[in-house]
Amino acid sequence: MNVVVYGATGNSGKEIVKELLRRGHKVTAVARKVDSIKAEPGVTAKADDLSDVNSIAAIVTGADAVVSAYAPPADKTEALVGVTEREIAAVKKAGAKRLLVVGGAGLLEVAPGVTLIKSGHLPAEYLPIATAHENALAVLRKSDINWTYLSPAAYFVPGERTGKFRLGTKELISDAKGESKISFADYAIALVDEIEKPAHERASFSVGY
Q1: How far is CA 24 from CA 1, 2, 18, in A?
Q2: pLDDT of residue 114
Q3: Rounded to the nearest 10 degrees, how much is the dihedral formed by the CA atoms of 139, 142, 145, 149?
Q4: In percent, how much of the chain has pLDDT > 70?
Q5: Which of 22, 138, 170, 184 is a good FRET partner for 114, with 20 to 30 A between their CA atoms?
Q6: How far apart are CA 56 and CA 32, in angstroms?
Q7: d(CA 165, CA 209)
Q8: 113 with 170: CB under 8 angstroms?
Q9: Contact 102, 69 (CB under 8 A)
Q10: Where does the chain have alpha helices with state H?
């Protein structure tokens, strides 16, 4: 498949690009600065800052799937909402088949009807980005494109590619010790699995150990 990955130089974006290439897909790796994107077979690097719908549409035209691994600046987390709106408009304009978004854990439930954001257990410094993700998901849900939103576990961290993880729907996934964690590499497997075999179209789901 032809897959466009926005945020291709970030923590999750790099692993998603690697996983797509591992499986033989063609990748357009997009970031504001593309100097660090390695030139290798199957990869085309393009620079874009997600500020203009027409520019995004030009890049995603012909894509079988578009992945947004965009991370907003720490001091301007609400930028995520505007970016999501522009991505939706661009995907629609270009006729791209799907938009898959690297989501956040804050909007997942830790008890029936109680999200991590509402639980009071989320550290204050994470509230702005968690709320931005919640608002971005609301924008996706109102859209008429084919979207998928994958939320990681609470601790989304570097780590090995094990291929062993669990999927959920709206719940935060934790292990027997109560730890909620997923590596960027294993998250990438779950996301690329979804690209290859759609099971959560116009829906959100979660992944963790």
Answers
A1: 8, 10, 10
A2: 96
A3: 50
A4: 100
A5: 184
A6: 12
A7: 5
A8: no
A9: yes
A10: 11-22, 53-60, 79-94, 116-119, 127-142, 184-196
Rounded Cα distance between 30 and 80, Å, is: 16
Angstrom distance (rounded) from CA 180 to CA 163: 16
pTM score of the predicted model: 0.96
Residues 72-106 have pLDDT tens digits of 999 999 999 999 999 999 999 999 999 999 999 99
Q: How confident is the model at residue 207 (pLDDT cuts 50, 70, 90)?
A: very high
Contacts of 197 (CB under 8 A, 6+ apart): none
In angstroms, rounded to a whole number, what is the distance separating the alpha carbons of residues 137 and 103?
8
- Locate 17 and state its tokens: 């690009």
